[in-house]
Write a structure and sequence with these properties.
- This protein is of the alpha+beta class and 815 residues long.
- Helix content is 49%, strand content 16%.
- The chain contains 24 helices and 23 strands.
- Strand 3 (88-102) and strand 4 (108-115) form a beta hairpin.
- Helix 2 (18-47) crosses helix 12, helix 9 (282-313) runs parallel beside helix 12 (379-404) and helix 22 packs antiparallel against helix 23 (779-804).
- The two termini are 42 Å apart.
Length: 815
């Protein structure tokens, strides 16, 4: 009952001070809301239970080399692990393949996965409709649909099971639809694409996943050269990840001894499912957690300073209550309840801020950096916000509560016109809080400027291509067009010839993978005249298959030799083009033209006919690697990424390009249409998002700190109004008064900056893995941050200082 009375009294008191209440509520709402929003993201990716049975027992199995910690398995290696690993219940292979859906509306390219028959059994997820594949039993014609594809393409028809659909010109039978909660990304050795497969088909003979180009009856189970299989497995109940890792290393060594040419020198890695999905986001998320905690610390200090000022104004009220018999504990409790009531209002507003921040984060998350959509603000996030609100209320109100309970009754009951409204202890406390705010703000400002400079450096990196007016799109051939390498090459040549005839097109070409945001192929090779390396240590390079005109369309210069031509057909001399890095590694200081390489011991020698400029294929932050290119007429694929350079806005040419492809074959859909600038923007999405968020927190921290220092100095002027009036009455110039106040501000700013340097250095080191082109302890960044913070503080202190020079001495002395 007493608590309710205290709470009601607190509400009435806050209503009587609307300006104070609004400032405190906004401050707390921003601090609590920012923390709730980031916790929402952290919980969704690092803490929320995954939607699979006993998800903590699910792991991925990768091959490894000393320089490559995770790489896909070959089909034969998958079977070796499946047969020999005793610490796992089963191992399922996964392969990413595109499929063309036709015969049910407009032709559409779909992202799909070919999986082992035990894939769904290992995950332990039941379908929404029908029955999925089972271990050792899967119809070659079966297909499982994702919930999204079922809803958008088939209208959510519950009678879809058993219906036939056409994929790549072949009839398949829908056997199941997965539930909406089944959230499975496209698995890669690095960070995964968050856009998951739209359907799943069973593997080929031998129960191994298919490649995009093989046939259903093709047996890949003995293939050790094609490394394209991702593998998921389930640990047995009595097995740990460490135990499975030790076993898989032993088996990998055994396989390497049995097959030294293909598997020699290779290891293996067991990676927990959550680490595979979200491990690359752990550091950025923890950095953001640290940033929002610092923002909340500033908010608490700011509100505590406001409460100290309000407590000073209530000294006589507190003295009366003490004189009437109220104990000091009762006074402390009253102040804590008032701060908790205030924090409760801030927490409610903070949930609104968190909801708004979620929407803003989704809008600024075009590349799917964080899976906010799959993690709504749920009861766990609300409970976190409630606990945070209570903690914030206690932290904000503890210092004012303790100080208020120590006031002297007799002194405070005197009107004391000559006395200040608060004693030295209160002044020191408020200044200490201001210093804390400045120190924490410096930490965030340093982080924001480091990320800004890093992002700026990334934006100005020479990627090796000219992205201006460059359009990209994909074509995956199906049906008769994909029957033979000659037919594939012929279609691409026809399509490029038609596109080049369009009025706004300057150049056009195609490649099997796009740099910056495309897939990533690599291959081992041997250079003629060089000694053969030991097993498992063969040189590796990026591998591309391109058409004539690709380099011109991309703006990649031919530095020596020539481009591919139509004369480089399938029966002509095998040729290859290498990039500058490849040439400098293999033939430093020598002319690479005319030299030869091959990709396998029994492969054909390919003659180098050209050298081209380097491209940062894996993104602006990754240095160029050695790469070699083959002509599409000598090594064809059924899928290619087209690049078209136009004179004006490339998007305007999209309808004409679609019309030309449809005229050639309406069953070959154009997909993934985007400009190269959009690909580059997606590659920069994560550093841009990190900079934006930390900069926003830095601006918020700086603003709250400036408000705090302004409040301290304004209160300082109010306390010393009589002294200032006397000084000015005795002839002190206004400049002296201003200097007195500004010097006090400068002292607080200097102490705050000095105190914050250590924390800023720690935070900067935490950012080191996210920086590019700049060191975490960059002296310029620290100096600029300190100057910015000190300058804004001095500006904040100058306002009360100038106001002090306009004090009416007569009125002040009368008071």
């Amino acid at each position: 009952m007493t608590l309710m009375q205290d709470a009601a009294y607190a509400v009435r008191g806050l209503r009587k001070s609307p300006a104070f209440s609004v400032v405190a509520l906004v401050t707390l709402a921003l601090g609590i809301g920012a923390n709730a929003a980031i916790f929402h993201a952290v919980y969704g990716m690092l803490l929320r239970p995954l939607a699979y049975r006993d998800a903590e027992r699910l792991v991925f199995v990768w091959s490894s080399r000393p320089t490559v910690p995770r790489e896909p398995l070959s089909p034969a290696r998958l079977i070796d692990f499946r047969q020999q690993l005793t610490s796992l219940h089963g191992v399922a292979g996964i392969s990413q393949i595109p499929l063309n859906l036709t015969g049910n509306g407009e032709a559409e390219r779909l992202d799909a996965s070919s999986v082992s028959s035990n894939f769904f059994d290992i995950l332990g997820v039941a379908p929404l409709l029908g029955e999925t594949f089972h271990d050792g039993a899967a119809d070659d014609r079966a297909v499982v649909l994702s919930y999204g594809l079922w809803l958008t393409r088939f209208g959510g028809d519950r009678g879809i099971v058993g219906r036939q659909i056409t994929l790549n010109g072949s009839t398949r039978i829908v056997v199941a639809v997965m539930p909406k909660e089944f959230d499975w990304p496209m698995i890669t050795a690095g960070p995964n694409s968050l856009n998951g497969p739209q359907l799943w088909i069973p593997g080929a003979r031998g129960d191994v996943p298919r490649t995009p180009t093989d046939r259903a009856d093709q047996d890949m189970s003995s293939n050790r050269d094609a490394e394209y299989v991702r593998a998921v497995a389930r640990l047995k109940e009595d097995t740990t990840v460490a135990q499975a890792q030790r076993e898989v290393e032993v088996i990998a060594a055994r396989i390497g001894q049995t097959h030294p040419d293909t598997d020699g020198g290779r290891g293996a890695a067991i990676v927990p499912l959550r680490t595979q999905f979200y491990g690359h986001l752990r550091q950025p998320l923890l950095v953001l957690v640290g940033a929002v905690i610092l923002v909340l610390a500033i908010a608490c200090a700011n509100v505590a300073s406001l409460l100290l000022g309000r407590a000073s104004a209530r000294r006589k009220e507190i003295a009366v209550r003490l004189a009437l018999g109220a104990g000091r504990g009762r006074i402390v409790r009253q102040f804590l309840i008032e701060s908790i009531v205030l924090a409760t209002g801030g927490g409610l507003c903070g949930l609104l801020v968190a909801w708004w921040a979620q929407s803003a984060l989704i809008g600024s998350n075009p590349a799917g950096i964080v899976r906010i959509e799959s993690a709504p603000i749920d009861p766990i996030v609300i409970l976190f916000t409630v606990a945070l609100t209570l903690l914030t209320g206690l932290l904000s109100g503890l210092m004012p509560a303790l100080q208020s309970s120590r006031h002297g009754i007799v002194e405070d009951l005197q009107d004391g016109g000559a006395r200040s409204s608060s004693g030295p202890r209160s002044n020191r406390n408020r200044e200490a809080l201001a210093v804390i705010q400045l120190a924490v703000a410096l930490t965030l400002v340093v982080g924001a400027i480091l990320l800004l400079r890093s992002f700026s450096a990334l934006r100005h990196v020479d990627t090796g291509i000219n992205t201006q007016n460059l359009l990209t799109f994909n074509i995956f051939l199906g049906g008769s067009r994909a029957q033979s390498p000659e037919q594939q090459a012929a279609f691409y040549d026809e399509a490029l010839a038609a596109i080049r005839r369009l009025p706004d097109v300057n150049a056009a070409g195609a490649a099997v993978t796009l740099p910056i945001g495309g897939d990533d192929f690599s291959a081992g090779y041997v250079a003629e005249g060089r000694p053969l390396p030991p097993p498992g240590q063969r040189s590796s390079a990026g591998y591309q298959v391109v058409t004539p005109g690709y380099f011109a369309a991309m703006g990649i210069p031919v530095l020596a030799g020539r481009d591919f031509t139509p004369a480089d057909h399938r029966t002509a001399m095998p040729v290859v083009i290498v990039n500058r890095t490849f040439a400098s590694i293999e033939w430093p200081g020598r002319d690479p033209i005319g030299r030869r390489i091959r990709t396998s011991d029994d492969g054909l020698w390919m003659t180098v006919v050209g050298v081209v400029g380097d491209v940062r294929h894996r993104g602006p932050s990754v240095a160029p690697r050695p790469e070699f290119y083959q002509p599409h007429t000598q090594r064809s694929f059924s899928f290619m990424a087209f690049v078209v350079r136009t004179r004006h806005d490339p998007v305007q040419s999209v309808p004409l390009i679609r019309a030309e492809i449809s005229r050639l074959d309406p069953l070959q859909p154009v997909s993934r249409v985007a400009t190269m600038d959009e690909h580059l923007a997606r590659a920069l999405s994560r550093p841009r998002l990190m900079f934006t968020l930390v900069a926003a927190f830095g601006v918020l921290a700086l603003t709250l700190s400036v408000v705090g220092i302004y409040g301290v100095m304004a209160y300082f002027v109010t306390q010393r109004t009589r002294e200032i009036a006397i000084r000015m009455a005795l002839g002190a110039p206004a400049a002296t008064v201003v200097a007195m106040i500004v010097s006090r501000t400068a002292l607080l700013a200097a102490i705050g900056v000095a105190a914050g340097l250590g924390g800023a250095a720690v935070f900067a080191r935490a950012l080191s893995g996210l920086l590019f082109g700049i060191g975490s302890l960059d002296a310029t960044t620290f100096l600029v941050s300190a100057a910015l913070l000190a300058g804004t503080c001095l500006a904040a202190g100058a306002i009360p200082a100038l106001r002090a020079t306009r004090i009416d001495g007569v009125e002040a002395l009368k008071g």
